[in-house]
Amino acid sequence: MSKKDLLYYLALQKAEGVGAINAKKLLVHCGDAQSIFDEKASNLSKIAGIGLYVVKSLKKKSLFEQAEKELEFIAKNNIGYSLITDGHYPDKLKHCADAPIVLFSKGDINLKDRKIISIVGTRNITSYGKSVLEELVESLISYNPIIVSGLAYGVDIYAHKLAVKHNLQTIAVLAHGLDRLYPSVHRKTASEMQKNGGLFTEFWSGSKPEKENFVKRNRIIAGLSEATIVIESAAKGGSLITADLANSYNRDVFAVPGKLTDTYSKGCNNLIKTNRAALLSSVADLSYLLNWGKETAVKTVQKKLFVQLKTEEKPIYNFLKDNGKQQLDQIALHCDMPIHKAVSILFNLEMSGLVQPIPGKIYRVV
Fold first, then answer.
1. pLDDT tens-digit profile of 235-256?
2. How confident is the model at residue 31 (pLDDT cuts 50, 70, 90)?
3. How many CB atoms lie within 10 A of CB 299?
4. d(Cα 199, Cα 197) in Å, to the nearest integer?
5. For residue 1, what pLDDT band results from cuts at 50, 70 and 90?
6. Which pLDDT belongs to residue 91?
7. Domains of the chain (ranges plus CATH)?
8. pTM, to two decimals
9. Dihedral sign from CA coordinates of 87, 92, 93, 97
10. What per-residue confidence (pLDDT) applies to 298?
11. pLDDT at 339
12. Mean pLDDT, rounded, of the chain
């Protein structure tokens, strides 16, 4: 995309009342950002969700004055950017309804054909959380994933530091513009990250790390990744918001369990208890549910005329045999069993060469 294209996308992003969802509606209707500003107000107002306030906002000349200034900042500071219509825009994020139409970046970021996971948690990480996180990241090395987090105190910064230590690409999603860094004490780590990874934000220069911005940035953390892992969390916290966002995007969520009496395990335990997260005890749990490291081609298994099944395996096997490939939650629902039990049975069926997992928590009979 040219600088002219970027200018129009910046103006669209800055227009009051538009937002990410309406911006996409306008882009679909008009074809590109410039055409939105060239379109008649009467035609724009006919688009569902685009009211008179939005139309008036789009017609303000000041939008382009602000966009020109931001364009100068981008050029002067060598800021990278991705428009949602670009081929190099993060693929998983693009599929989120509220993904930003412009994403700014700094560093050496390469998302192509990579496994991407988000790691989040409390700002008050305990020795238990550190131990779990250290073991997790070390076990992930062979999969070479990109680790995404928010550069905050606690779990976030510890995850970034461990990724840097083990030469894994890591990305921090910021709640402010790229003219500053918050918290400033993490500046050294942020600089090191840009050698193999870097920073993402949807916020313009001058944007401060205000409270509401952290919730907005959490949706990007969840949207970038195929799975979100919550290491530690109190009963309430930003990491639980990120987990809920990941669930809303139909992404996998994992949580590390802890003692019932531990303050910073209550959030994780509740996620598991309410089936909003899978229990994570090791990387094996992650790789199995995400189907990492498995060959896409299934080894040929000679069909048996009579398949010997255990009593508990029959409902799942017969359901898949009769209905074709199915998602994990549908299997558990139809067979009237908890998800953790269905996962255990499916694993046994897979080891017997009778069932094959497919990315997206989908299974089918071989």
1. 999 999 999 999 999 999 999 9
2. confident
3. 8
4. 7
5. low
6. 92
7. 3-76 (1.10.150), 108-290 (3.40.50.450), 314-365 (1.10.10.10)
8. 0.79
9. positive
10. 34
11. 82
12. 91
Mean pLDDT of 209-236: 96
Q: What CA–CA distance (Å, rounded) separates 149 from 338?
A: 30
Which amino acid belongs to residue 262? D
How many other CB atoms are found less than 10 A from the CB of residue 230? 28
Alpha-carbon distances, residue 123 vs 72, 158, 189, 214, 314 (angstroms): 35, 10, 16, 13, 46
For tokens 């238990």, what's the residue?
A: 128
**Distance from chain centroid for Cα 58:** 30
Residue 307 to residue 365: CA distance in whole angstroms: 12
Nearest alpha carbon to residue 247 among 177, 306, 166, 329:
329
**Taking 80 as the threshold, does the pLDDT of residue 294 lie above it?**
no
